[in-house]
Specification:
Elements: E1 7-9, E2 28-31, E3 34-37, E4 47-50, H1 54-63, E5 68-74, E6 79-87, H2 89-135, H3 141-151, H4 163-166, H5 170-184, H6 188-193, H7 198-217
Parallel strand pairs: 1-5
Antiparallel strand pairs: 2-3, 4-6, 5-6
Helix pairs in contact: 1-2, 2-3, 2-5, 5-7
Length: 225
């Protein structure tokens, strides 16, 4: 059987109950076009739940044996608009407890996910540092750590966040090291600030980068291999 909820109106004008004559009424129902207060309509024991929280509204409505829809007339739009519900107080309290438990569960899940991501990020950074030192054994350990941390920074989109970077692809790791050298060990950033186009600046500092990479490899080999 389909349920037909009572409709409660928030009047725009001052109205009095047609039965008990109390007023002005904050909320009322209309019976035969006459205003009736909630107490006379046997709805006075219900509490108001404003609209906005979908989960809370659904749970409170499902747990309430008697509930009503609260509306107010919008003159500009010439229509009645829903303001919330009237529900049983016990049902609202139970719904609030359930929603709070859900919120706490979501917070715990987010914390666990953050911990897992932090562990994964640390593992990626550690693995990347180790691979940098394997490919470039003469690279200072602190520089290798700095390059690995920079390349794997969360949300950066850098090499360490890509699939090839996470798989420790040789070219990807070398690209991360080359980028680190470019910004720290050459005047590349200064050239950019002087207005030198990026591609020209890269060409000018390329020999210096390759010299550092060869020194870090310690065998005189080509770092791009």
């Amino acid at each position: 059987m389909d349920l037909v909820a009572p409709v409660v109106v928030e009047p725009l004008k001052r109205r009095r109950c047609s039965e008990c004559h109390r007023g002005p009424l904050e909320r009322m129902i209309l019976e035969f076009n006459a205003p009736v207060c909630l107490d006379c309509a046997d709805l006075g024991h219900l509490v108001f739940l404003p609209r906005g929280d979908t989960a809370l509204t659904r749970r409170a409505r499902e747990g309430s044996a008697l509930w009503a829809v609260v509306v107010r007339h919008n003159r500009r739009r010439t229509r009645y608009e829903r303001q919330g519900l009237l529900v049983e107080e016990a049902a609202l309290a139970a719904a609030e407890r359930a929603c709070l438990a859900d919120a706490e569960a979501r917070a715990r899940r987010r914390a666990r996910d953050a911990e897992r991501r932090a562990v994964l990020d640390a593992e990626v950074t550690t693995a990347l540092r180790a691979e940098i030192l394997r490919l470039f054994p003469s690279c200072p350990a602190d520089r290798a750590g700095e390059i690995a941390a920079h390349a794997s920074a969360k949300g950066s989109g850098r090499v360490g966040r890509t699939a090839t970077g996470r798989s420790l692809d040789r070219d990807a790791v070398t690209a991360a090291v080359r980028a680190g050298v470019r910004h720290v060990d050459t005047p590349y950033d200064t050239l950019l600030m002087q207005g030198v186009p990026r591609h020209q600046a890269r060409t000018r500092v390329a020999p210096a980068i390759e010299a550092v990479l060869r020194a870090w490899r310690g065998d005189g080999g080509d770092a791009r291999g």
